[in-house]
Here is the input.
Amino acid sequence: MKRLIIYVLYSLSVGVCFSQAPSEQASKFDIGKLEFGGNFGLSFGNNASSVVIAPQVGYLIDPHFSAGIGVNYSYYRYSSNSNTGTSLNYMGFNVYGRVKPVQSILLQIQPEIYRVWGSSSGSSISQLISTLLVGGGVTLPLGSRGGIMMMLYYDLVQNAYSPYGNRIFYSVGYTFGL
Here is the structure.
């Protein structure tokens, strides 16, 4: 009797495994849905300098939503007349989610983590900080899968050493697909 029960259970489990219909099409990675972009900036003058290099890579999940990751390096230097200045380096990592509710309009959320090091007003600084950017803007199309992104952002975390300050700021970047 014990063998009969084991045989029936085994037969049912094998039958269930083989009776499942294969899925229509397993979702596959589509290299054509990759999007590349980011920001690059240089600023010099008025006792201040800045350099920003921030590439990103994302994936177009559907025509209205994409998500991705990026890295960032920024350098800021500011000198005042009293010989007390600021020189800060930022190395960071970010993830983003971007929604396109209508053609050319973008909404984005982007949490980031940075390691900041340098000096400010004679004090040495070395710490990890986080930021949470929220923003919106427009894409000016260039070709079939690219464009210039003009965005307004705000950092919700407001860390004292945030590279974004405590105001709304603008960013001009780029995006292109394969």
User: Anything to note?
Assistant: The beta strands are 34-45, 48-62, 65-79, 85-99, 105-120, 123-141, 146-155, 169-177.
